[in-house]
Amino acid sequence: METKPLIRRYKSSDEAEVMALWSSASKLAHPFVEGEGEGERARKVREVYLREAVNWVADEDGVAVGLLGLIGSEIGGLFVAPRAQGRGVGRALVEHAATLRGDLLLEVFEANPGARGFYELMGFEERERRVDEETGHTLFVMFRPGH
């Protein structure tokens, strides 16, 4: 069943909750990435992405269930807590980003067919492929024009 979560700006008091949801969602989505959801990758999310991106949280009854980071018109990351997946949280975050920015760009791992399918349903089309230097895995660069 789809719900309409409250979309709000990330605040520093969300950090522990958001890091826990990022860790569980990224481990589920990227089992092929060594050390995903922890260690150096977690440090980078906490110290770089949560500080430099414009981050939005999907909030259900005071609990963060989704996170979307925007860098300009690029979605730097979209993560939904596993228990909240399939309920429209990711869709709400992407639509919020589209309302703010119009055209959207993102990268998604080739080895993550669930996310690729979701983004295709959301109107994104593959533009190019590249190898991620950090992981060695292929990324699809996807674009969605503003409406």
Structural description of this entry:
- Helix content is 35%, strand content 32%.
- With 147 residues, the protein is α+β, with helices and mostly antiparallel strands.
- It has one domain (6-144): Aminopeptidase, CATH 3.40.630.30.
- Strands 1-2-3-4-5-7-6 form a 7-stranded mixed sheet.
- The two termini are 26 Å apart.
Q: Which SSEs are present, and which pair or pack?
A:
Elements: E1 6-9, H1 15-29, H2 39-52, E2 54-60, E3 63-71, E4 74-80, H3 89-101, E5 104-109, H4 113-121, E6 125-131, E7 138-144
Parallel strand pairs: 4-5
Antiparallel strand pairs: 1-2, 2-3, 3-4, 5-7, 6-7
The CATH class designation is Alpha Beta
Strand content: 25-35%
Largest sheet: 7 strands, mixed
Report the average pLDDT across residues: 91
Structural class: alpha+beta
Can you tell me the residue ranges where pLDDT is under 50 for at least 5 consecutive residues? none
Please state how the strands of the largest beta sheet are arranged side by side. Answer: 1-2-3-4-5-7-6
Oligomer: single chain
Features:
alpha+beta; Aminopeptidase; 7-stranded mixed β-sheet; 35% helix; globular
Quick description:
The chain has 147 residues and is α+β, with helices and mostly antiparallel strands. It has helices at 15-29, 39-52, 89-101, 113-121, and strands at 6-9, 54-60, 63-71, 74-80, 104-109, 125-131, 138-144.
